[in-house]
Write a structure and sequence with these properties.
Number of helices: 19
Low-confidence stretches: none
Mean pLDDT: 92
Order of helices and strands: HHEEEEHHHHHHHHHHHHHHHHH
Shape: globular
Largest sheet: 2 strands, antiparallel
Number of domains: 1
Radius of gyration: 22 Å
Distance between the termini: 29 Å
Structural class: mainly alpha
Length: 520
């Protein structure tokens, strides 16, 4: 077991990568064997993530160096230089890994039935596994260039999956917009990496954080990275691609695209806190993140209100919910240089924003899966053409209610637990921001009440009298996420203490991340 834990960071990335190449080969022999391979692979990855998380929470940051026992090379002048490919997994990295592993497993199980009638499913599962590789790589890498590489892997596979059902014209449009946005963002990230390498001859995040001088070029690189990752996570005003891509993608893939966007949000936080951190006054950057969050919250929820396409409605709410995460962590970033404010409310605001990341991945993933189930049985995403589906799709309607109450922040659901942490801490920073955040939750509840009434209640339309419940694997996929939501709702204090506070502290304590690689 010790060896498995030691090598788990690279196994979590390498095993899905190997399975991605085996999938089309096995598919030629037996399609059921291919499905078993995919689900078994993701279940084993989930197991590896869990045991790695336990080790990190018990023993601290896990450093894995490819091809060597030490991440650094000592040159004659006794200067420690990290020259190898390094995976540096701390409490924040593994927090994101838990999200990626869990939602990906649920999405893959769900897709077994959802994609059953589609052709080219061997390519579908290969791309799905590659997307997972990209997300884990972004979350675990300790190197800026490899961050760019894994960002590209996740983006290219995500674009192909969004456009997978090419018979739908909006799918092609959604995939095209995603690859354009991803390419632009990746080029900006690569340009920023070039700026760092040209100045410091380094690519390792910890090494850069130790020597960064905050020159004008460093300021330009920070601005470019904030723009690139804000664009990739779908924050307003760089959100235009989100409704078109999320709405057109297969439901399981939409849930994974949400997690992929959160991986880009993680990259933004890693750059701001770990790479730059307290070496500069982050109050201005913090306020930029806060403003992005407020715009995302308000614009997202107001754009969701008039939508009649259920997946577009949920897509705009995904934009809105990302605002809560940016708001909470942005407040922590704004007071990072003020130890008293950070200890008083900044850490709590960050913890609320980070807790909302995992809550959002769960309930938004669940909501997109319920929307996919409705489309699977009715052939439409138009809420005006639905009605009374709760009579025959009882489990789907229950899952929708769980997701809707969670996203609206209704107690005792997990969405309320993270939002109340944000409200209370942000109120101490700026009361107006907290009031706006609460108003957005009220509008969110109204929007989902309308969607539930349109789809599930009322008289059953004649064309849907014989409609059936979603297939078993789709119900299992939704059930996985719903069960975790209920657990989080019953025991939010345990979740915050176990995984949320350690993740927030990992971002705040820049020196620990640096010393894990550089020593001292």
């Amino acid at each position: 077991m010790d060896k498995l834990i030691t090598h788990s960071p690279i196994l979590i990335i390498a095993i899905p990568l190997l399975a991605a190449f085996l999938t089309p080969l096995i598919s030629r022999v037996n399609e059921k064997a291919r499905d078993v391979l995919v689900i078994t692979t993701l279940a084993f990855v989930e197991f590896l993530v869990i045991i790695l998380a336990r080790d990190i929470y018990a023993n601290g940051i896990h450093i894995y160096t490819l091809g060597a026992s030490s991440p650094t090379l000592t040159i004659p002048e006794q200067y420690m230089v990290p020259v190898r490919i390094i995976l540096e997994v701390d409490a924040m990295s593994i927090f994101m890994g838990i999200i990626s592993a869990t939602v990906s497993l649920a999405a893959a199980v769900y897709s077994l039935s959802f994609m059953k009638e589609e052709t080219g499913r061997d390519r579908f599962y290969t791309l799905l596994l590659l997307m997972i590789v990209g997300m884990f790589g972004m979350e675990f890498t300790g190197d800026m260039f490899n961050l760019f590489v894994f960002l590209e892997i996740a983006s290219i596979s995500g674009a192909a999956l969004a456009a997978f059902r090419t018979r739908f014209t909006d799918a092609v449009e959604g995939g095209f917009k995603y690859i354009i946005i991803s390419s632009a963002g990746a080029l900006v990230v690569l340009f920023s990496v070039g700026i760092f390498y040209a100045q410091y001859n380094l690519l390792n995040i910890a090494a850069l954080a130790q020597v960064i001088q905050y020159t004008m070029l460093d300021k330009i690189a920070l601005a470019l990275l904030v723009i690139a990752f804000a664009m990739k996570l779908g924050g307003v005003p760089l959100h235009m691609w989100v409704p078109d891509t999320y709405a057109a993608a297969p439901a399981g893939i939409t849930a994974m695209l949400v997690v992929s966007s959160q991986a880009c949000m993680y990259a933004l936080f890693r750059v701001c806190f770990t790479l730059y951190g307290v070496t500069l006054n982050m109050a201005t950057v913090g306020w930029i993140v806060i403003i992005l969050g407020m715009l995302s919250m308000f614009v997202g929820v107001t754009m969701a209100i008039p939508q009649i396409d259920i997946k577009r409605l949920m897509s705009y709410h995904a934009i809105s919910q990302s605002g809560y995460m940016l708001l909470g962590v942005g407040v922590g970033l704004a007071v990072l240089g003020n130890p008293e404010a950070l200890a008083t409310y900044g850490r709590e605001a960050m913890s609320g924003g980070i807790f909302h990341i995992i809550n959002h991945a769960l309930y938004k993933g669940l909501l997109f899966l319920t929307a996919g189930a409705l489309f699977y049985r009715t052939g439409t995403r138009d809420l005006n053409k639905m009605g009374g589906l709760g009579h025959n799709m009882k489990f789907t309607s229950i899952f929708f209610i769980i997701g809707a109450l969670s996203i609206s922040g209704i107690p005792p659901f997990n969405g309320f637990a993270s939002k109340i942490m944000i409200y209370e801490s942000v109120y101490r920073f700026n009361p107006i921001l907290a009031v706006i955040a609460m108003l957005v939750s009220i509008i969110t509840l109204a929007s989902f009440t309308k969607a539930f009434q349109s789809a599930f209640t009322g008289p059953q339309l004649p064309q849907y009298k014989d409609v059936k419940e979603a297939p078993r694997s789709m119900l299992i996929g939704m059930g996985i996420l719903a069960s975790i939501i209920i657990f989080f709702s019953l025991f939010p204090g345990l979740i915050v203490g176990w995984i949320v506070y350690p993740a927030a502290d990992a971002l705040i304590n820049q020196a620990i991340y640096i010393s894990a690689v550089m020593g001292g």
